Amino acid sequence: MSKRFSHLTIIVLAFILAVGLAGGNQQPAQPPATPQPAAQQPAAAQPAASPEQDTGVVVRVSGEVITEKEVMDAINQLAGRQQLDAQQMKQKDTLLFNQALDNVIATVLLRNEARDKKLTVEPSKANEAYETIHKRFKSEDEFKKALATQGLDEAGLRKALEENMLVSMAIEAAVQNIPAATDADIRKFYDENPKFFEQPEQVHAAHILLRVPPNSTPEQKAEIQKRLEGIRADIESKKITFAEAATGNSEDKGSAQKGGDLGFFPRGRMVKPFEDAVFSSPAGTLTPVIETQFGYHLIEVIEVKPAGKMSLAEASDRIKSFLEGKSRQEVIEKHVADLRTKATVETVMTQEQWNTRHAAK
Q1: Could you tell me which of 328, 28, 325 has the C-alpha nearest to residue 190?
Q2: Is the Cβ–Cβ distance between 95 and 37 less than 8 Å?
Q3: In total, how many domains does the chain have?
Q4: Are 280 and 140 members of one domain?
Q5: Predicted confidence band at 149 (pLDDT cuts at 50, 70, 90)?
């Protein structure tokens, strides 16, 4: 693959390894692992940089060069998907180096495997992928400018997308025989991991919001509150339903189109005055009109779900997805490891040398 296309391909493909090598790992209620800082190396004389290091070569995979730019692109992809605090973000270029480099190497190995197996991408599917990206831009000029920022043209994007799809095909071929999680597997996980299925008290509510413009006078605020009190009276006298009133009056446009419905939420999700009103009211009632920094609210408490444990029936689909994702992760990791043992992976820039070049300032 030419240098012109290589780093772009990594940008386009990085998400595959982020998902693929994570295996769809969506363990219920499991916080994502926090990356740990790279181990501190004892002070020592630095190896002299080779000419390849000076040109930004990090590793060669069966003779194919992986550049510093490609690894940095992969690091930035990972950083955008992980929950890093401010200090970790400052150190991301060294913190995520090993993970990013492994992802780039795996991408190359999987792409080469697809080619060795003579896998091909149907032109119609490649074109569909191209059009999906193309349609995200408001104009052809905006699209071309975005390509140019990556040093690309239309042909380059199409080639990158094709290689993206080849990697995806190699992954799917590797995992095609993974057995589905059984009912017994699901029950076992549910019984052995009760902490994942604990649920706090939750309320299902809907609201009507009337916003208060900045610098409103007390009289203007009182008028807005009075209007909402009038809407409340109309709902209570059954002149109009809450959903109809929300659709016609609420200034929270996101929920207004759903009749004001906010779905279920636990404590800590909403601002304090809103939360206090909702969690102190029984299901099937309207709260008094309350004020928050957003304006005046009238809230309908639809349902109260007490704290407890999610039932097996409620958790079953989630557990099944997690278990099958875990199996997928294990198969892909083993498959990539096998590919790596058959390839020649030559380190040109060590982690110590990378850290020296990319240490946080």
Answers
A1: 28
A2: yes
A3: 2
A4: no
A5: confident
- E strands of the chain, at which residues? 57-61, 64-67, 198-199, 202-210, 261-266, 285-286, 290-292, 295-305, 308-309, 345-347
Co-location of 42 and 180 in the same domain: yes
Secondary structure (DSSP) of 303-337:
EEE-SEE--HHHHHHHHHHHHHHHHHHHHHHHHHH
In angstroms, the first-to-last Cα distance of the chain is 34
Q: Are 277 and 290 in contact (CB under 8 A)?
A: yes
For residue 68, give the amino acid letter: E
Residue 312 lies in a domain: no
Q: Of 171, 20, 18, 30, which Cα lies nearest the Cα of 96?
A: 18
Which residues are bridge partners to 199 per DSSP? 308
State how beta strands 261-266 and 285-286 pair: unpaired
Question: Which structural domain, as residue segments, surrounds residue 38?
Answer: 3-184+319-358
Report d(CA 156, CA 3) in Å as an integer.
Answer: 11
**Which residue has 């992802």 as its token pair?**
103
Query: Nearest CA to 270 among 199, 203, 197, 200?
Result: 203
| 34-43, 199-208, 274-283: range with lowest mean pLDDT | 34-43
Count of positions (residues) in the chain: 361
Q: Which tops the pLDDT comparison, 33 or 358?
A: 358
37 part of a folded domain: yes
User: What does the DSSP 8-state code read for residue 195?
Assistant: G
Residues in CB range of 253: below 8 A, 6 or more apart: none
State the CATH number of the domain containing residue 225: 3.10.50.40
- To the question of pTM greater than 0.70 for the whole model, the response is no
Assigned token pair, 103: 């992802």
User: CA triplet 32, 37, 40: central angle to 5 degrees?
Assistant: 160
Of 209, 283, 211, 295, the C-alpha closest to 247 is: 209
In a domain, 147, yes or no: yes
